[in-house]
Amino acid sequence: MREQPIGEAVEDDAPASDVMWPPEKEIKVSEAHASLAKAVAGSRGVRYFTAFIIDVPSDAYLGDVQMAIDEAAGAACGILLTTHVTGRDAATGEPILTQEATRPFKFPCSQGVAKAIASFCDKLKMAGIFP
Predict the structure, then answer these.
(1) 28 CB-near residues (< 8 Å, 6+ apart)
(2) pLDDT tier at 17 (50, 70, 90 boundaries)?
(3) How far is CA 124 from each of CA 1, 28, 44, 65, rounded to the nearest angstrom?
(4) d(CA 90, CA 50)
């Protein structure tokens, strides 16, 4: 064990999260993926957030998470957006990019956006979507 400057003991070998993201950014409903907005349609007070997710061990980009958070109801709904090269434009040779979204996944969460994203990432890992 090592000691933090404030005197709090911390385990050196504490398990680290497999994913990380920069601070999430709040977005307007018009910027959210249509399937996410549809999944929470009719809910009041929903706020939308996005963040890109990085796999810590490989430092690889895994995709963009979008979350709809209803703090009053203590609920969250998330999707993962991934972009794939699906071909080349015959005229320009530029890659053709296609965005895919997981189906929206709703779950209880009343501990804020960061906890909602972490919980959603855990669920993606359990489903085999994340490494």
Answers:
(1) 48
(2) low
(3) 32, 24, 26, 11
(4) 33
Residue 89, CA atoms < 13 Å, CB-side half-sphere: 8
Whole-number mean pLDDT of the chain? 85
Considering only residues 61 and 9, tell me which one the structure prediction assigns the higher pLDDT.
Answer: 61
Tokens representing residue 109 in the block: 């969460």
| Residue 106 pLDDT grade (very low, low, confident, very high; cuts 50, 70, 90) | very high
- Three state DSSP letters for the chain: CEECCCCCEECCCCCCCCEECCCCEEECHHHCCHHHHHHCCCCCCCEEEEEEEEECCCCEEEEEEEEEEECCCCEEEEEEEEEEEEEECCCCCCEEEEEEECCCEEEECCCCHHHHHHHHHHHHHHCCCCC
Q: What is the pTM of this model?
A: 0.78
Reading the block at residue 42, the tokens are 């009719």
CA–CA separation, 107 and 105 (whole Å): 7
